[in-house]
Every structure is written in C-alpha cells, then in structure tokens.
C-alpha cells in the first residue's frame, strides 16, 4: 500500500500539483486558468503604487481549543499580517506560531486549487481537474445511486472539527461514523463518576484556577504545547506558588517548565493512581465527610449480583437512566444496620462492618478496600518505575490539597487501559474531595474554549426530516467489521488521521463505491478519493460574514479577510450546491450573516439572543462573556451530573469485565513481553506545538522547526549503530515508515517518539499510521464513548534505512 | 535619555518560536533569514535536553539583537550604516550598508543576517507591516526592536504575540518602567556580559 509515497516512483504531491496547474490551463477551465497557478495568481504587490490596506477580524483553529481571535491586515487583497485581536484584556489576546504561519501557509503549494477527479488507481495520486458543476453533479448522482441501492445510511459523512459542515450529513440522512475512538480513553473511565466531561474528560475548571491550587499534578498532558496560546496560565500558576508536578515518560516541554518532573513507564498511569489510592486509604488521608456525603462509597452493592442496590430494577429500554430520586440507591444506617434510602441519611456507614447484622450487601467502600489490597505503593513503584516514597509523598500532597489533577489526550489516553487510569483518577478525587472548590479540579485543562465561559449559541433551524442515520459500526471498525457503508464524504483526513493500522484502512477504503474529500489542503486521505473539492481556509469567505463561534470566554466572529483563493469555495457554498441537487437548498442559510443572526436570535441565553450582528462587528468581531472576570469553576455546589448527584465511583455496567472498581491491566501491546522481544521500542505518537494533528504539515514556516522525525534516547540509538541525524526505518509487522532520527535524552529509553500525523508526503517514506495499533478491547464497547484507538500502544523497532 | 529594551523571562519561555515567526512576519523577512531565534542551551536537536535521562534540564534562550550600548557591530561599521539612535536602539541605515559584513563578524550574539541574493518570499509578495522598509540584496539586517511600531508607541510584535507572556518591553532609563523594575528586582542579567557590550536586552530566571 505504500505505493503512494513519493520515494517509490509515484508523482510527488508537489509535482502533481504543478502538473495540475498546467493541465488546467490547457483545458481552459471557464476563466479559471489564470487562478490555478500560484505563480500567475499571486501578482507582485509592488505593482501597485499605493497599496490599499484594511483590517478584518476572524478566529483561528477550534481544534486546539484556542480559537484565537485574530486581527488580520490585508494589503492589495492579500493577507499580510496576523496578530492577536486587541480588543479586551491581555489574557484574551492570544496567538501562537501556527496562527502566524498562515500568512504564507494559506498561499502554500499544499492547497488544492481546483476540484479534482481521480484518474489513476486509488492511492496513486493521479487526478485531473474538473469543473465544480461537473464534480458536484457526479457526486450527487453517485450518492443517489448508493443510497437508492443500499439505503440512506450507506453514505457516511464524517467531519473533522475545523470544517463548517453541520448540515450535509443530516440533509442527506447519512451516517456520521459513530464513535470517534480519539481523546476518549481517560474520559471513558473518569466521566461516569462525575457525569461531566462528555467522555472526553472535559470536566476541568478554567486553567486560571491553577493559581489557587497548592498542587497541580499533570499526568499525560503537555499543556505548554497543546494549549500553547494560554501557556502563560501554567507559568503564572507556578509563580503564584502552586507546586507544578508533571508525570510523563518523556521530558516534555511541560515537564521542563514544572517544579518537578516524575518520569513514569508508558501506559502505567493507572498503577500510579491505584498506588496513591492505597496510600490515602492506609493512612486515612481521605476526607471522611466528603466521602460519606458526596460520593457513592457508602452505597450498598448486592452480594449476589455485584450491582448497586436500587429501589427497583431499571428498565433496560429506558432512554435516560433513572435518577436517584426516582429510583433511590441505598446506604446503611450505622446505628440500626438497616439499608436506608441514600437521600435520607446524612452520615451513612462507610462499611457494613460499622453495624451489626448481615444485609446481604457490602458498601462500595468495603469492595474498594478489598480490590485495593494488591495495589500497594511498593507494587505501584514496580509497575511505574517511580520510587515508592515518591508515590507516597505525592499521595499525601495530593490529598492535602487543594489539588488540580490535569489529565490529557496525548499520553496514556491512547492506550488500551486508558479508561482504568481515568477511573482510578476518579477514586483519587472522590476520596480527597479535590473538586468543586477553588484550586481543585480534575480533567483536561487544555483548550481555553473547552472550559471557559461559553456563551450559548443557538442554531440555524433545519427541517425535522433532516436527521443523520445511526452508525451500527463505527468508522474505525469498518475495515474489520461488516457494515453498510458504501460511500463516504470526508471533511478532513479521516483515512490517514482517524484510524490506526493504515494498510488495513486503505484496503477497506478501496472497497467503497465513492470517496469525496473536502479540504483546503491536499491530505494523505485525499489520495484515496474519487473527487477532491477545494475548501476555503479560515481567512477566506465569499460574503462579509462567515460564521460565529465560542472562543475563550467570548463569542468570536469570522469575517471575510480575503476573497476565496484559487477555485476554493466555502463549506457552506459546497453544502448548498449539493443540497440543490437534492432539492433541499431552500432550507439552508443564503448568507453567513443570515446564519449568524439566527444563531444569536435562537440562543437560550437572553443576553446572546438580544445581540445584534452589527454590534459584534463594531467591537472588532468579539462579544466578551459577561462573567469572564470570574474564574470559571465546576460543580461548586458539589452536585454532580450523575443519577445520585454524587461522585459515582462504582460502575455497574463494568461488573461483567471485573472493572466495577478500577483493576490494573497492562496495555495490550506494549505490555506484551513476548512481542517486546521482537519489537522492543514503544512508539508514542503525541501532539506538538508545531501541528494540530495533520494540519500545518505543509506550512513552510513550521517546517523550519519540525518535519516528521523519530526521536530516541541516545542509548537506544547507540545499541543499533544509529547516529543522530541518520535516516531510519521504524517498523513492525503491520508496516513501516522512514524518517530522520534525532538523539535526545528527553526520550525515555525503551520508547521512541514521533509527533502524530506524519503522512507520507512529509516523511522520507510511508505513514506513521502504517505501524500503529488498532486493537479494540471487548470492554471498550460498553464504555461511554466506545473503545479508544490505542495509537501509542504500539511496539516497533528501528534500523538504519 | 531613553533606552528601549526587551526583558525576557527564561522561566516563562516555553520555546514555542512564536516570537521568531511573528518577527519574520512583521518585518517582511525573506526565506532563509531570521532576526530572532529560540536556542535550546547545549543542544543540537529541537527541544533537546542537557544531562542523561532522567537527570535533565532544558533552557530555552530566545536571541535577537541585544541592542548593546557599546555595540561591537557599530564600532566596526566602516560607513556608519549601523548606528545607535536616540532611543537606545541599534539600527541600520540600509542605504549606507555596503554589505561588508564586518558587523556580522563582530557581533558576539550572531544576531545579524545578510541578504546574499535577491530576497525570496514564499508568497512572492511583501508581507508584514507596510511601514517596514524592504531590504535589497547585499545589505545586512537584524532586529530593529520593531522600530516602526515602537516609534508609534506600540509594543514590538514578538512581545504582543508571546504565548508565555515572557517578553517585556519598555525604557530601561525610566526607573518606573516594568523593564527597569524587572532588571532591578529579578536580578536580570545580559548575555556575554564579560564582553563589555552592555546589552539592553536582559534575561531573568
């Protein structure tokens, strides 16, 4: 399958795009010939004696949670300067190197300039230019054929976070691909306890709250890169006196900015947390009143069924779980020993041993004391490689609080046992009460617009008949499970970005009757597409107003900065044109402004509903959230979004998997000692300040600092006769890729690191995903968001190429 | 007197290179040249570390023109192209620069770059602040302390873009300025102080 790589004789992306320009000129696309070649389109600015200059405002990536409000200078129709929008207080004037790189990136040779139709085999990268009308007519016709033959859900419309793609899937009645498998590892385990976070562990207060913490414990998160525009909040917390401790296998940027770095064996975060839990229990460091009043530790579990005692059996067909009020849980009266409704007892027994008699049940607390027995701090030290005394001191410091437990999406989250680490973290929080008070919280703190004051936006009203179909099989399982997907429209690079084990993915993709890729840039996945449609970047629009979004405690407006480049069209225009071919376009907004006005007017927040578009425009495209002078916190009233409104640490649905309380389990692949004998290195593929997933792979100014490189500890390289800077092949039985190699002591021996989304046009050869692990564990399908794709639960070896 | 300066917190710098790219954008710096770079002390790879795992340290060091009071570059310039202006900034009169590059050899901070060929820009057009003069082939260039911005009372672009809020700008000769206070209170130091160049740019932990 590596036939698409530039090193194996195929056309490189760059030469292909140049070829496209020439071919397009030759076939004389309706007046577009001069706009297809970068050279022709970009006339020299100095041709104008007096440059015309103006300012426009927009927002940048949503995906990193930054959503930076930007002030853009346009001269002679070109974007020439991008800087933080200077409305509002300093802390909201954010930007990072990715925003700045756009000044050249949006004009780069990575752009798809015209609609393209595949002419070679899938993956060969052979396309020819085609007109918009021809492309859209073809696509609509084939979608109709597929849906007529196999049903509406035979079409998959999947979208990455950056695209403005809301309407298309529902209007076509397509399926959306089900579970994403990404960023849900830790949240799957943590969020059932808090009822917050939506499975993504997004349950944290604003990172500003760290300045009120005594301990900020970061585990598996690299905030100072992942949340770069707000990196100042990390250093400000440190200056305010918070003890910043970072647990990471590697000496990450965040580790190096912390007061202390604690190296840990990859994939063992759960063992660290379980060891801390034991130490807190053994030394009675828990908050007794909090445990009895705000957690499910005193709840009774039936000895026979191992399920929580409830008033009556839940209807398995019920759409929503019953609440604690309608179907109470039970605790034990410490005096009488009788079970009693949990909401009628302020200080229940923690253990059934506190009262005489036998009720045929034990408390969650009793069960935890039993299940925690093997997880001593000595055991945790053995598993994690962290000294026992350090684990114990950390547990004591965490328990004392107020402590923030910052978790992440880039470390243990991408391994098969991620849910166990999230669940064990929930135990730590529930024991110590480190939540719902200043300086205390748990979850992912990355991304200010994920956890700040978000003004409620309404939505453009769509017909009731517009509804996405269910996905019986999730996208990442389609290569291995029978399913009804026969065609796909992808906004973003799903084939190379959202699924592991790429050789398998592309074999599956090749079985589809239709693949359409919509993206401003030519991605790896685009090579498997039948049609590629060029979308506009964040800075281009065909109308004065594009869209509106929630930024960091503010609404931010997307204004047109420049006209669409090349033949690119906005996502809304593309949606409208497809809708037209299905007779549905009358229901779509005719302009961006019309949509924004509807999103404001239909807001559930009266202040937002009263907003006028012109007022936001007059304020440089920003409407600050009225609450934002206060630090946004979570669950201040200690009422959680669970059925009992308590922290619920016992998971009934995990009883069949022996994970009702978190039980240690090694990672599926990197914990396999036999396989390690053949492939001794764990490949961690993490995020970086230089990219957002595969975005910016083609940004020349970011390539000054990073191009896909595997980084290894010098000792692992010496053992293989590899020198710093050598080209190496990274391989396992699934496949391989070839990249330069850096020797860096920051990398833990026994691991190698590459930043994710190294796709074949940017490596020496091959895709990073050729090697990654796609194993889905059985338990995963019973978790909140389905199994996580264990991209970093991957073993490889490296050799000089 | 006025002595404009940037004072940098090494503790707050997260090594992201935003300062370097914002400078490149603002000042229309062509391909192959940078006025501002973030070094990692003692390392020859990106985001390297000093020491042996797990006993490691890492220090990012953003380096551009240090706007020295006793500027080595100025002393060797045969044409007077490099000069000290009335706000304490070291500047270059591009019309007077003959491209001899004596200043580059003299600068101990390696802060200057030279237009060896016709400047090339990825977009084939000028970008950045329209007030910034375009430099031709054959002249030396470097950080101007965003002369065009600071003359108009704006902060340098690297200062307003820094995600770590690690860069501070002001007048060292004004004892009430943020930068003067930081130098005083944080015991800020200058790079290669032993060379006697008396940089205006300061760093603190």
Q: Count of helical segments of chain A?
A: 25
| Distance separating the two termini of chain A | 19 Å
How large is the share of residues in beta strands of chain A?
15-25%
Uncertain stretches of chain A = 1-48
**In oligomeric terms, what are we looking at?**
heterodimer
Shape of chain B: globular
The order of strands across the largest sheet of chain A is 5-4-18-17-16-6
By secondary-structure content and strand pairing, the structural class of chain A works out as alpha/beta
CATH fold-level topology of the domain at 185-295 and 374-450 and 638-657 in chain A: Dimethylsulfoxide Reductase, domain 2
Query: What order do the strands of the largest sheet of chain B run in, or round the barrel if closed?
Result: 10-1-11
Helix content of chain A: 25-40%
Radius of gyration of chain A: 27 Å
Q: Which regions of chain B have little confidence, pLDDT < 50, spanning 5+ residues?
A: none
Mean pLDDT of chain A: 92
So what's the overall shape of chain A? globular
């Amino acid at each position: 399958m590596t036939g698409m790589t530039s090193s194996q004789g195929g056309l490189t992306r760059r030469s292909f795009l140049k070829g496209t320009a020439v071919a397009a000129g030759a076939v004389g696309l309706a007046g577009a010939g001069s706009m297809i070649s970068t050279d022709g389109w970009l006339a020299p600015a100095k041709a104008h004696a007096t440059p015309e200059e103006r300012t426009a405002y927009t927002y940048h990536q949503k995906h990193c949670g930054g959503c930076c409000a930007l002030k853009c200078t346009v001269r002679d129709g070109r974007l020439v300067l991008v800087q933080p929008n200077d409305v509002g207080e300093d802390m909201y004037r954010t930007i990072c190197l990715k925003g700045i790189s756009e000044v050249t990136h949006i004009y780069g040779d990575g752009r798809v300039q015209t609609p393209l139709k595949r002419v070679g085999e899938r993956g060969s990268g052979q396309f020819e230019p085609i007109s918009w009308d021809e492309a859209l007519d073809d696509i609509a016709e084939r979608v109709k054929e597929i849906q007529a033959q196999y049903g509406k859900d035979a079409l998959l419309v999947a979208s990455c976070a950056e695209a403005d793609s809301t309407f298309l899937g529902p209007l076509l009645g397509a399926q959306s691909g089900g579970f994403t498998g990404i960023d849900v590892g830790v949240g799957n385990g943590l969020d059932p306890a808090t009822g917050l976070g939506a499975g993504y562990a997004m349950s944290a207060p604003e990172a500003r709250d760290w300045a009120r913490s005594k301990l900020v414990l970061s585990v598996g998160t690299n905030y100072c890169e992942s949340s770069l525009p707000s990196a100042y909040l990390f250093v400000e917390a440190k200056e305010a006196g918070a003890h910043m401790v970072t647990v990471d296998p590697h000496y990450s940027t965040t580790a190096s900015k912390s007061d202390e770095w604690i190296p840990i064996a990859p994939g063992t975060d759960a063992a660290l947390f379980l060891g801390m839990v034991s130490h807190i229990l053994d030394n009675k460091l828990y908050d007794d009143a909090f445990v009895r009043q705000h957690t499910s530790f005193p709840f009774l579990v039936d000895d026979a069924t191992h399920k929580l005692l409830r008033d009556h059996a839940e209807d398995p067909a019920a759409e929503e779980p019953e609440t604690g009020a309608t179907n109470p849980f039970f605790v034990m009266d410490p005096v009488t020993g009788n079970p009693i409704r949990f909401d009628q007892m302020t200080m229940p027994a923690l253990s059934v041993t506190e009262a005489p008699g036998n009720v045929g049940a034990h408390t969650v607390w009793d069960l935890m004391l039993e299940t925690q027995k093997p997880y001593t701090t000595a055991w945790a030290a053995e598993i994690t490689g962290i000294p026992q005394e350090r684990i114990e001191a950390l547990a004591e410091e965490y328990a004392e609080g107020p402590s923030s437990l910052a978790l992440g999406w880039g470390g243990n989250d991408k391994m098969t046992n991620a849910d166990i680490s999230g669940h064990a973290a929930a135990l730590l929080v529930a024991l110590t009460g480190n939540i719902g008070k200043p300086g205390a919280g748990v979850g992912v703190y990355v991304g200010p617009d994920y956890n700040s004051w978000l003004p409620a936006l309404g939505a453009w009203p769509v017909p009731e008949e517009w509804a996405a179909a269910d996905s019986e099989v999730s996208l990442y399982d389609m290569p291995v499970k029978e399913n009804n997907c026969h065609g796909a429209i992808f906004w973003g690079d799903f084939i190379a970005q959202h699924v592991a084990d790429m050789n398998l993915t592309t074999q599956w993709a090749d079985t589809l009757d239709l693949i359409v890729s919509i993206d401003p840039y030519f991605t790896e996945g685009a090579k498997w597409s039948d049609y590629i449609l060029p979308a506009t970047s964040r800075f281009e629009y065909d109308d004065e107003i594009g869209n509106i979004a929630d930024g960091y405690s503010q609404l931010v407006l997307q204004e047109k900065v420049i006209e669409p480049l090349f033949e690119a069209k906005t996502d809304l225009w593309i949606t409208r044109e497809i809708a037209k071919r299905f007779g549905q376009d009358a229901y779509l907004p005719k302009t961006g402004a019309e949509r924004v006005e509807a999103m404001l007017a239909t807001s559930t927040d009266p202040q937002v509903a009263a907003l006028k578009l012109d007022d936001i425009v007059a304020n440089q495209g920003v409407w600050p959230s009225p609450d934002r002078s206060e630090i946004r916190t979570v669950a201040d009233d200690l009422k959680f979004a669970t059925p009992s409104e308590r922290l619920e640490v016992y998971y009934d649905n995990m009883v069949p998997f022996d994970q009702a309380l978190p039980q240690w389990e090694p990672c599926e692949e990197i914990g396999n000692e036999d396989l390690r004998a053949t492939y001794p290195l764990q490949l961690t593929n993490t995020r970086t300040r230089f990219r957002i997933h595969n975005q910016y792979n083609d940004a020349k100014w970011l390539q000054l600092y990073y191009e896909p490189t595997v980084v290894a500890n010098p000792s692992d390289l010496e053992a293989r006769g590899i020198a710093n800077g050598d080209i190496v092949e990274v391989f396992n039985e699934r496949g391989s890729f070839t990249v330069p190699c850096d020797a860096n002591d920051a990398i833990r021996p026994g691991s190698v690191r590459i930043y994710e989304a190294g796709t074949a046009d940017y490596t020496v050869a091959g895709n990073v995903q050729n090697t990654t692990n796609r194993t889905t564990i059985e338990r995963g399908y019973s978790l909140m968001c389905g199994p996580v794709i264990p991209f970093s639960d991957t073993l490889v070896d490296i050799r000089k190429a | 007197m006025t002595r404009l300066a940037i004072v940098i917190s090494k503790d707050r710098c997260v090594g992201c290179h935003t300062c370097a790219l914002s400078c490149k954008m603002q000042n229309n710096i062509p391909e192959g040249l940078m006025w501002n770079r973030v070094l990692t002390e003692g390392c020859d790879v990106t985001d390297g570390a000093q020491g042996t795992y797990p006993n490691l340290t890492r220090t990012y060091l953003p380096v551009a023109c240090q706007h020295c009071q006793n500027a080595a570059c100025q002393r060797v310039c045969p044409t007077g192209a490099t000069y000290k202006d009335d706000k304490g900034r070291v500047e270059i009169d591009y019309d007077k620069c003959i491209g001899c590059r004596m200043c580059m050899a003299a600068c101990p901070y390696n802060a200057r770059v030279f237009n060896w060929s016709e400047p090339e820009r990825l977009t084939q057009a000028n970008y950045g602040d329209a007030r910034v003069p375009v430099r031709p082939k054959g002249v030396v260039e470097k950080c101007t302390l965003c002369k065009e911005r600071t003359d108009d009372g704006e902060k340098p672009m690297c200062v307003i873009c820094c995600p770590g809020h690690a860069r501070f700008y002001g007048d060292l000769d004004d004892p009430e300025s943020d930068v003067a206070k930081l130098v005083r209170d944080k015991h800020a130091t200058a790079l290669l102080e032993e060379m006697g160049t008396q940089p205006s740019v300061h760093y603190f932990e």
